[in-house]
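Dear H.,

Thanks for agreeing to be a second pair of eyes. The structure we're designing against is below in token form, covering all 490 positions.
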């Protein structure tokens, strides 16, 4: 048995695709006894009695066709982490999946929502149905994908996006800071018919770095050529506004940019807050590391479609400085309450646990020590900032304070393995083989989290799909009404 398990572990390690990885992992669960653990409802990590009761109520109402009772149970009892079913501890015992009871509950809720969406009921007319799905779906919330900064290390994000997209699990709400903004822009400006080809290493031009010289840093001039970076972005990102990209792909990309001025506020650029801003310029600004790249002016399209300055006279820099992971603003704009984070910032990655299940004494003490150091550093920077009159020095201190006080993790964290020498390649142009290796690393890091992501996003994805179908039904009804009222219209 041990020999068979070791062979399966080698197969898991050497898997070339997620399907291969999944098949080997499922067989490992069967042979190791993990499948038996899945069949036992009881666990101290979640309220299994609550989930069992909720499952029975919803299933009984659906099987009996009791629409009123079904709507009541769903409207009153749907919560994103009901009974703690999203607890990462529930995924530590198996290679694939979790308790069968949890998966049965998620399947039943999704089946109930599809049943209500796709059938007509006298006691549940279309207007009430649409209102139910809109209000309940908004209250339930949705997941987002947040791609951090990290310069060349951010190529890891491509593999994360590719793995999720291939499984139909790529969230429609995506944010990207600095290097992450490039990947978010590529994903958000290419539709599904284009994305498979675009994410191949040979089709990505990522030679973004051209040195001007480190000596210029002492004179206040940038180290790297901003025009060269902009040319790189032009090769990868279509000449689109945020709204144009959304209308094409349905993906809602968000790019945070930090103010170059000391007393300005950071902005989150997207099709809702800044629909006419050009994505290329937003990404260029989000990549403009102070002292490394020059600050950037944003551009937008006016009513005539001409390109004009956006907020003339203001410049912006690296989005990671103020808000690497803009979860609060995403929550306000989209009802996001669950974050999948791909984190590659070199000043963050060494200190993040690779497992959400790591709760031993050493990790707890390490996190406590890091938090205390960060808190003391933040207070020190605030004290210094109040005594600085120079705008340039004050700006640097303000940015440093922002970096220290941010939160860099989410609900599910995808973090590359620790590679101490990797930091030496942060500002190095990657070869095609380097890009291929980064993509593979991102994919392989995502695979073990795939079923957790699938489960935790299951209900919100069902809400999204149902609302899409209901919107089409509503459009069809309106079109038929117009035809009846005006038969000459076709």
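And this is the sequence the design step returned. I haven't edited it by hand at all.
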């Amino acid at each position: 048995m041990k020999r068979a398990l070791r062979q399966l572990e080698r197969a898991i390690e050497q898997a070339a695709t997620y399907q291969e990885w999944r098949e080997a992992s499922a067989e490992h669960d069967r042979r190791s006894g993990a499948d038996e653990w899945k069949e036992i409802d009881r666990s101290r990590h979640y309220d299994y009695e609550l989930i069992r009761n909720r499952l029975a109520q919803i299933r009984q109402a659906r099987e009996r066709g009791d629409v009123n009772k079904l709507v009541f149970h769903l409207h009153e009892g749907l919560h994103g982490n009901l009974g703690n079913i999203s607890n990462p501890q529930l995924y530590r015992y198996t290679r694939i999946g979790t308790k069968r009871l949890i998966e049965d509950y998620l399947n039943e809720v999704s089946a109930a929502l599809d049943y209500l969406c796709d059938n007509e009921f006298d006691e549940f007319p279309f207007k009430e149905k649409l209102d139910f799905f809109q209000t309940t779906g908004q209250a339930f919330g949705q997941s987002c994908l947040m791609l951090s900064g990290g310069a060349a290390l951010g190529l890891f994000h491509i593999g994360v996006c590719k793995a999720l997209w291939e499984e139909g699990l790529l969230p429609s709400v995506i944010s990207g800071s600095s290097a992450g903004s490039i990947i978010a822009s590529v994903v958000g400006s290419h539709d599904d018919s284009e994305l498979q080809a675009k994410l191949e290493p040979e089709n990505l031009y990522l030679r973004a770095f051209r040195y001007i010289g480190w000596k210029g840093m002492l004179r206040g001039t940038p180290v790297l050529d901003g025009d060269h970076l902009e040319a790189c972005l032009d090769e990868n990102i279509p000449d689109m506004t945020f709204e144009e990209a959304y209308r094409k792909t349905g993906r809602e990309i968000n790019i945070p940019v930090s103010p170059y001025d000391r007393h300005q506020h950071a902005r989150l650029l997207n099709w809702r807050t800044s629909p006419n801003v050009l994505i290329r310029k937003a990404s260029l600004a989000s990549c403009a590391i102070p002292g490394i790249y020059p600050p950037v002016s944003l551009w937008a399209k006016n009513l005539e479609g001409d390109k004009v300055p956006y907020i003339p006279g203001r410049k912006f820099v690296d989005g990671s400085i103020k808000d690497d992971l803009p979860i609060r603003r995403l929550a306000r704009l989209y009802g996001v309450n669950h974050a999948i984070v791909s984190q590659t910032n070199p000043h963050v990655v060494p200190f993040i646990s690779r497992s959400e299940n790591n709760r031993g004494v050493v990790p707890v003490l390490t996190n406590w020590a890091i938090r205390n150091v960060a808190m003391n550093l933040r207070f020190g920077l605030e004290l210094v900032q109040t005594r600085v009159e120079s705008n340039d020095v004050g700006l640097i201190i303000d940015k440093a304070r922002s970096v220290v006080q941010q939160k860099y993790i989410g609900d599910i964290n995808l973090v590359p393995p620790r590679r101490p020498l990797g930091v030496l390649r942060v500002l190095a142009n990657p070869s095609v083989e380097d890009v291929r290796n980064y993509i593979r690393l991102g994919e392989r890091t995502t695979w073990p989290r795939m079923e957790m992501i699938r489960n935790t996003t299951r209900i919100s994805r069902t809400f999204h799909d149902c609302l899409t179908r209901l919107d089409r039904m509503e459009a069809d009804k309106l079109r038929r009404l117009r035809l009846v009222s005006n038969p000459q219209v076709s």
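Two observations from my side: Residues 458-485 form the longest helix (28 residues). The radius of gyration is 25 Å.

Warmly,
E.
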